[in-house]
Amino acid sequence: MKIILTNEVSGLGMAGDVVEVKDGYARNYLLPRGVAIRWTKGGEKDVEQIRRGRKIREIASIEQANDVKAQLEGVTVRLKVRAGSGGRLFGSVTPADIASAVKSAGGPDVDKRRIELGNPIKSLGSHRVSVRLHPEVVANVGITVDAAK
Fold it and tell me: Where does the source fall among the domains of life (predicted)?
């Protein structure tokens, strides 16, 4: 099946790419999650719009990615969350929470879809998360999760 990606899918392509995938993969995974739309002749117009939006958000060069990486690694990120006794959180820290905390700490704007959590953050303390800025550049950001009072 021919589809148009609306978001980046690792191992498949970037937003705006037209790719051919197996029918079941498209029908059961990509389309329900909203990361792709079916390719149609009218959909070709959407491809240009998606690509323009990608160019605005995209970090174009490795040098630019390294600059953003240096800014991210120089920022101290603190999150205040509700926690119970024993340091367990009510819920978990999401990539959206991390992106807003980086911005409020004086760091650069980070797309929440580029933040990679190994395991969900469900406890107080210091944690490390990866931010994939470019296919070749990954920034490691330290985050301190504190209890809100």
Answer: Bacteria
State how far the alpha carbon of 133 is from the alpha carbons of 54, 66, 69, 83, 129, in Å.
13, 8, 8, 31, 13
Q: How far is CA 87 from the centre of its chain?
A: 27
The domains found in the chain, sorted by start residue, are: 2-65 (3.40.5.10), 67-147 (3.10.430.100)
Write down the pTM of the prediction.
0.66
In degrees and rounded to multiples of 5, residue 14 shows phi and psi of -100, 170
**Cβ distance 50 to 58 under 8 Å?**
no
